[in-house]
Amino acid sequence: MQQKLIMKPSMSQTLLTRFTFNIPDIDSLFPGFKAGDFAVLYGPQSLNSLTSLLCVRAQLPANLGGLESNVVFIDCANSSSLSNIQFQLDAKDPLERVLNMRVYTAYRLTSLIMEKLQDAVENQDAKLVVVSDIACPFLYDNVNDQEAKTVYSQIMSYLANFAKKHHIIIIATYLTMKAAEETMSCRK
What we know:
By secondary structure, this protein is α/β, with parallel strands linked by helices. Helices cover 38% and strands 18% of the residues. The chain has 6 helices and 5 strands, in the order H-H-E-H-E-E-H-E-H-E-H.
């Protein structure tokens, strides 16, 4: 009779396949992201702080839970807190490894995602893309409601497919209406 030894992966091996927030309370509820994931985080303005943290963590070496990667950050309507990052990594400014692209209109966001995202990811060798407050540009009065719904749906589908195809993580935030109004940059 033969026995097969089945070993569970160690915790450190499991963590290498997941990109987490490294905040125990959050990590106990959510296992983290893996390559090929597209996620939309819905909630208050504090989501932007969490995604800023992920932008810094993505730059860390894998043995510290990072992705060893640059980041593409799409800031919709100047809603992020990315410029408030005060961390230092290897005595370098972490913002040097973040390509920050700002958009203020739904048309510009659509163009950037559909026509320029692939080049940005490849040029930056990025394994993480963050889209801050993805719905904001679609909430302006100058965007027809039906057109906004159609284009928004196309963008979401495109991002999901892009993440899978390129084996990267894409995270978008969608702020609550109250949070969006508090930024004063996104009013209907």
